[in-house]
Amino acid sequence: MKVRFWGVRGSIPVPGRATNRYGGNTSCVEVRPRAADPIIIDAGTGIRHLGKALMEGSFGDGRGHASILISHTHWDHVQGLPFFSPLYRAGNQVDIFARQRDMHLEAVFSQQHDAAYFPVPLSAMQAGMNFHELVEGARFEIGKARITCARLNHPWVAIAYRVDVDGAAVVYCADTAPFTDMLLGRDFIERPSFGTLPPPVQDELAAMRAGVVALARGADLLIYDTQFTPDEYKVRPHWGHSRPDDAIEIAREAKVKQLCLFHHAPLRSDDENDAILARYREVAAPEAFTLVSAYEGLEIPLGDQ
Amino acid sequence: MKIKFWGVRGSIPAPGPETNRYGGNTSCVSVTTAAGKLIIIDMGTGLMHLGNALMAGAFGKGAGTATILLSHTHWDHIQGLGFFPPVFIGGNQFTVWGPGRSPHVLEEILEGQMDPNFSPLQSLRNFSAKFDVRAALPAFEAEGLRITTREHAHGNTRALSFRIDENGRSFVYASDVGYPESGPEPEAIAHYAGADVLLHDSTYNPQDQATRRNRGFSSYEDACTAAIAAGAKRLVPFHYDQDYSDDAVDGIVAACRALLDPHGIAVTPAREGDELEI
Which domain holds residue B244? Predict the structure, then answer.
C-alpha cells in the first residue's frame, strides 16, 4: 500500500509563504491498498485536492468507490467534504465511517450543508453515500483491508484507526491529548487545572492508553497528533492534543517501525516544524523506530507494492 | 478611513505557493475610521490573522470595541470566528450586524458553527467577550459612521452589501453578488454610486462565469460594468476563486485595467496584507 498526505494541519487551514513546504491544508490522509479503492482518513481541506486527483481516474467517469474514515467531526476533519469533487458525479460511491453521535451521522454531516452555510445540500450530492456508525473497538473490512479502531482522549470523543493490508499496517492517531492529566469528554473546560485525578478517571485514561498502544502494536507507520510543544501543552491541556514526547512513548511501547508527526499547529512555520523534527530526531535517536514529520505530498510505501 | 485586506479568497481557503502573492485566506477586511474605530467586514479565515494583530493593542487587555458587518453566513464568511483570539478576552465588546429578519435567527446560525459535534468551543456563550448579534437595518450607525446596506441575490440565497460613508468619502463592500443576466440592477448601482472605493466580487473570469452563473458570483466583467455604471473612482477586485493561481488573478487585474482605464477608474486588487487609504 501507499500512504499519502493531502492535509497535515490542525485547527484551521493556513495559507501563506510560511507554510509552503509542509502545507496549510487541514487533515486528510490517503491509504491506497495495492490495486484497490482508496481508503481516506479524515476530510479536512486536503481532501479537495485528493478529490481532483481521483477525478482523473475512474471517479471522473462515475465508476469510483472510496471509503472515508472520520476520526471525529470537528471542522478541521470534515470541512473539505463539500469540496470533494467525486461526490458531484453520479455513479460514484462513497462510504463514510465515523463514531456514533447523539444523532444519526447523516444528520451531522447534513448540518455542514445547511442552506445557511453552504449552497448545495448533502441530499443533492450525485454520488451514492452510505453512513456507517462505529463504536470503540469496532472491527470491519473494506475490500481486503482490515480496519480496527480505538477511543482517543479528545473533547466530544475522537477515534484512532488501524488499517492492515498488503502485509503492512498503518495507524492514524489524531486528535488526542495524552492520557495523564485530564479525561476529555462532553464537558466544556474553561480553565484547566492540573492535580490528582480520582482513581476511576485514572483507570479510564489508563485503559484508553492501553487501547491505543494495542492498536498501534507492531505497526509499520504510526501517524500521531503532535500539535503542541511541551510549553504549549502546559497552558492548553484541555484542547485535546499531544506533544512529540507523548507520541514517542506510545511508539516505543507499541514497537512501531516508523513514527510520523502530524496535525501541526496552524501558526507553526515551516522552519519551526524543521526545528521540531531535528530536535526530536535527537531525542528519538536511541529508539528502534524512525521519525518523520508529515508534509503535503509526502508518500510512504508500506508492505507489498 | 483605512482599509486592510486579511482574506481575499472565495469558498474555501487555498494554501500553497500558487496563492502566495494574493493570499489564500477567506474573506475578511478591516476598516479603521479617521477616529481610530474598528469595523470588521466578514469573518473568513483572514479573521484569525487580524485577531492576532489586534491582541497587541487594546483587545489584548480586554479593552477593545469593534463592529462586525457580516455579508452572509456561508462558511467562507464565518469560519474564522472560532479562531479570533479577542473573543476569548473578557471586557472586549463586539456588535455583529448581519443578514436576516431576526437577530435570534442569525445568532442560532452562528451558534450552529460552535455545535459540540463540530467545535470544541461548544457555544457562543463560551466567549468571554460581549458578542451582541443584530439584524442589519437598511441604514444604521456604527462606530460613529453611517452604514447603508443592500440585500442582494447570491445564488439561491441572499447576502448584504455595505456602504460606509465618512467625511464625504465612501467605501462599498459588495462580495458574493450574483446579478441577473441583464447585469447589475439599478438598486445596486444606486448603492455603489460615486464610491471612492468599490470592493466588488470578482470570483470568475467570463468563461467560468458562463457555466457557473447559478452559483451567484460575479465575473470581473460584472464588477467593471458595475464600477462604470456607478461612477466609482476605484475598483477593488475581491473573492477570487479558490482554484485561481496568482498568475490567473494577475490576468483578472490586467483585464479590469483594460476595461476601466478608458473611464478613468483606478484598479487596486485585494491582496492579503495590503492597505488602502481613502
Answer: 2-277
CATH of the domain at A47: 3.60.15.10
Distance CA A139, CA B77 (A): 40
Residue A9 CA to its chain's centroid (Å): 10
Domain that holds residue A242: 2-301
DSSP state of A102: S
ipTM for this prediction: 0.96
pTM of this structure: 0.97
Q: What is the pLDDT of residues A218-258, one digit of tens each?
A: 999 999 999 999 999 999 999 999 999 999 999 999 999 99
Residues of B with CB under 8 A from a CB of A: 9, 11-17, 19-20, 23-25, 45, 48, 52, 73-75, 78-80, 82-83, 109, 112-113, 115-123, 126, 155-157, 215-216, 242, 272
Q: List the single residue in A with minimal CA-CA distance to B158.
A: A116
The alpha-carbon gap from A87 to the nearest alpha carbon of chain B, in Å, equals 17
Q: Which residues pair with residue B224 across a beta bridge?
A: none
Handedness of CA A282, A284, A290, A295 (dihedral sign): negative
Q: Which of B63, B18, B249 is nearest to A23 (CA)?
A: B18
Question: Which site among A12, A153, A268 would you substitute to test the B interface, given the most B Cβ atoms closer than 10 Å to its Cβ?
Answer: A12
Q: What share of chain B is helix, strand, coil (3-state, %, to 5)?
A: 30, 30, 40
CA B33/CA B36 separation, integer angstroms: 5
